[in-house]
Amino acid sequence: MSDLIPEDLAQTLRSLTWKANLCFGLFGFCLLATAGCSVRVFARVDDPVKAEGVSLALDDHVCDFQDNSDSGDEPTLDLDLIFYVINGASSRVTVHPGRVSLIIGGRAYPPDAFNKDIYLRPRSSREFHAHFSYDGGASCTSNLAVTTDHVVELEGRDLPLRPLSFQPSDQDAD
After folding, report:
1. Domain tally, the chain
2. pTM here?
3. Which domain holds residue 31?
4. Which residues does 50 contact at the CB level (< 8 Å), separation at least 6?
């Protein structure tokens, strides 16, 4: 192996730094996800809902299902949803994460944990979380939906956004 001269060494270090930044940017989330989080790709998820330049999407999730049949308790679904909102409108947007509801069997269940209200300037974006716990007949393989109709306000009025449906996983998370 030949020795590197100083200019070659500097170029090599710049190249390695760029490659490391690129790799972490592309794969860093995957590396972090495998370091203890149970982040999964949706089995199925609706496209973002849009109105008046504002877009709202289900971006990611963590789903855990406990059968509980050994103890005689009802099964438990533990679901953390990560949403992504883009304000392409010319006015400020207010996002109310606490107004998202999980729809199971035609009934709406409010989140048990969520981010505080978010204010987005025009041409900005942000993610937010809503966490749900549900005891009953839903699992990580169930077809689910969330309400979004009163979640985003533009100039003080609710944007008419349809519900987002999704299936967290194609395999139960035990």
Report:
1. 2
2. 0.74
3. 1-37
4. 56, 161
